[in-house]
Amino acid sequence: DTAVSQTPKYLVTQMGNDKSIKCEQNLGHDTMYWYKQDSKKFLKIMFSYNNKELIINETVPNRFSPKSPDKAHLNLHINSLELGDSAVYFCASSQLGITNEKLFFGSGTQLSVL
Amino acid sequence: RKEVEQDPGPFNVPEGATVAFNCTYSNSASQSFFWYRQDCRKEPKLLMSVYSSGNEDGRFTAQLNRASQYISLLIRDSKLSDSATYLCVVNNGGNQFYFGTGTSLTVIP
To answer: Does residue B38 carry a pLDDT above 70?
Structure first.
């Protein structure tokens, strides 16, 4: 069973469209994240949710809106897509409150905006 | 100043070589440290945690120097399958994970 799964794996779309990426984890973790990895391969945190509550909201355009219906799901909706949004988006989860907690990643969604 | 800094490389080494990567972090209160491995077009996967006393997992050895705020990863007897990007990751407590830019390793036959 995949621990952190995200869909779709590939997303090709036109500028100006609205799209969503879904993420689910079956690890029982309390915390979920969205990371963006750009063409320079740098992984940057976008959002973090703990038990459905927004904890981290880095400087991200408000066209990006995360939604956490329950602690096992964290979806990312993007409005009015721009060329610069093209990147790989990784969902991740971790369990707060334990020693040496680790991040577990989904397999990534490669978004290409044309 | 970045939270975590790594030499991006690339490191190109022959099979069987020993290679070492270093990483520095800026927050002296950082609590947990990790090395992740990322293959091309794949997600980062945990390679090993880094403990204060240093730790070893087969051909891989990780060290932590809190006084100098750096972490190292040593790979002995490099294999072709070790070719990947190695990411240094620091946790400042709670859900604050910070990534280095990664160090690219290519092991050459």
So the answer is: yes
Residue whose tokens read 């990483």? B23
Q: Contact, B6 vs B25, CB < 8 A?
A: no
Q: Determine the residue type at B85.
A: T
User: CA A88, CA A90: separation in Å to the nearest integer?
Assistant: 7
Residue B80's SS3 state is helix
> Could you give the CA distance from residue A114 to residue B54 in angstroms, rounded to a whole number?
47
Residues, chain B: 109
**Single-letter amino acid code for the residue at B107:** V
pLDDT interval class at B4 (50, 70, 90): very high
Q: Which residue has the tokens 């993420």?
A: A23
**Alpha-carbon distance B42 to nearest alpha carbon in chain A (angstroms):** 6
Q: Are A90 and B96 an interchain contact pair (Cβ–Cβ within 8 Å)?
A: no
pLDDT of B95 strictly over 90: no
Dist CA B56 CA B48 (whole Å)? 9
**Cβ atoms B81, B34 nearer than 8 A:** no
A98–chain B Cβ distance below 8 A for any pair: no
